[in-house]
Amino acid sequence: MRFYHYGLTFLVVLVTTSCQVIKPYAPEPQRVVVESVEVEIREFAGRPEAYATVKGRLTSNAAQLVDPKQSRIDNNLYIEVLEQTPRDAVLLPNLSQAPPFQTRIPIELLGLDPGTYILNANGVETSFEIAPLHAGLVSEDIPAPETPSAVKLIDEFIPIEESGIPGTEAPPL
Questions:
Q1: Is the pTM of this model over 0.70?
Q2: pLDDT tens, 33-43?
Q3: In-domain check, residue 87
Q4: CA-based angle 85:87:90, to the nearest 5?
């Protein structure tokens, strides 16, 4: 009976310890405190490029920025700026003591028409404008200038084997 009691106790301990949830090494990424956001528009190869310069504060000295998430609803673009903090890091109670950060994030403009847009980075908003493309049309009336090519193509037949008699095929091997 005593052996049965120890076996049952061992089984209960084994089941309860195996059912415990082990915390992951790092908690889920959290949103950072954003203080300001600015948009810079440039043109590259005839297409607009936009970058958001986001400034704010992290929640601890151990926190690190992770890849931001972007989404769009109509003319509103949303950037969620996130940080990853190790599980045992101590969060600062006073965010004025938190370390500042500044990051530059490329804004996805694919599929956006020219116009005015609002960028929201963790609740801080700014507006920016995508200008229309200024592509010039090539007129068919003006011939293209002829420039000499560095490579000249010659269409020439080069036989693989010679048969000796013109007009006959090479003997089979």
A1: no
A2: 999 999 999 88
A3: yes
A4: 75
